[in-house]
Amino acid sequence: MDKLLIKQCLVYGSWLVWPFIAWLAWRLRERRGRWCVVLLLSGCLLFAWARFVEPQRIRVQETVLTGTGAQARLVLISDIHLGVYKDSAYLDRLVKRINKLRADAVVIAGDLTYEPGEQSLERMFAPLADLNIPVYAVLGNHDQQAPGPDIDVELRAALAAHQVDVIEGRSVALGGFRLAGLGDRWANKDDAGFLSSMPSPAPTIVLTHNPDSAIDLDPSFATLVLAGHTHGGQIRIPWLYRHAIPSQYGFDKGEQFLVTPRGRVRVYTTVGTGEVGLPMRLFNPPTIDVLDLRP
């Protein structure tokens, strides 16, 4: 069976949980097997929350990061994954929420798509044009390779049409610091050589998709790394979720430090706002990270 068809079956078939919940609630009126019914009903309600409620939430999380050498307020989002599970209507909600925040720029750490099929990417990402502050982005593994065809060129064109600056392999000056972009690690596009070949006296904030890219960075050229990719496990069941995180170096979410051959690199990983695999989130809602960078 086609993978896209399987995902569509998950999306539409999961609605059957509601009549099943109604049937279980009705069965509670009977005494026989009441505790079994209660357990089944509790499981179904948890599934309904993880499938229909939590993925549609938008949480704003503010974090102060001192010692960055920079004075700025950045909005970090990642793993939007528009396509088979989420659409431009959800992105529009994200944009409206971001526009209410007082920030200097939005940075998007890749994986903007998830099997969008034949949909127009320019139309899909149209809400990004409504952001009222500058937007910078890099692409992720779902944007550039399997699953699905490589949509790199089409996606870059769509983002450019909505004033999103894709900064892979280069840097931009932003009020006392520079923001540098690395491409996706799984696509072998995260070479950071340009940072050492173009040294800067200003602190450098590195935007990348995969936090594992930090292993190749020199902390003298990377004050802070901003990343996504991990989803924080997405379905965050204690202990078990760690086995679902695609990180070679133990990244999870939030601020972590990675000891590399060149020194200790500071990384902040966001849990993202979309879903892959299963259209579910649990104990881990879609999150907009607001980072207050301080010297």
In short:
With 295 residues, the protein is an alpha/beta fold.
Question: What can you see in these coordinates?
Answer:
With 295 residues, this protein is an alpha/beta fold. It folds into two domains: 3-55; 58-293, Purple Acid Phosphatase, chain A, domain 2, CATH 3.60.21. The protein has helices at residues 3-13, 17-27, 34-53, 88-99, 121-124, 141-144, 152-161, 193-197, and strands at 59-65, 72-77, 82-83, 105-109, 113-114, 135-138, 164-166, 171-174, 177-181, 204-207, 224-227, 254-260, 263-269, 287-293. The chain has a six-stranded mixed β-sheet with strand order 1-14-2-4-6-7. A six-stranded mixed β-sheet has the order 8-9-10-11-13-12, with no helix packed on it. A two-stranded parallel sheet has the order 3-5. Strand 12 and strand 13 (263-269) form a beta hairpin. The chain is globular, with a radius of gyration of 20 Å. The mean pLDDT is 92.
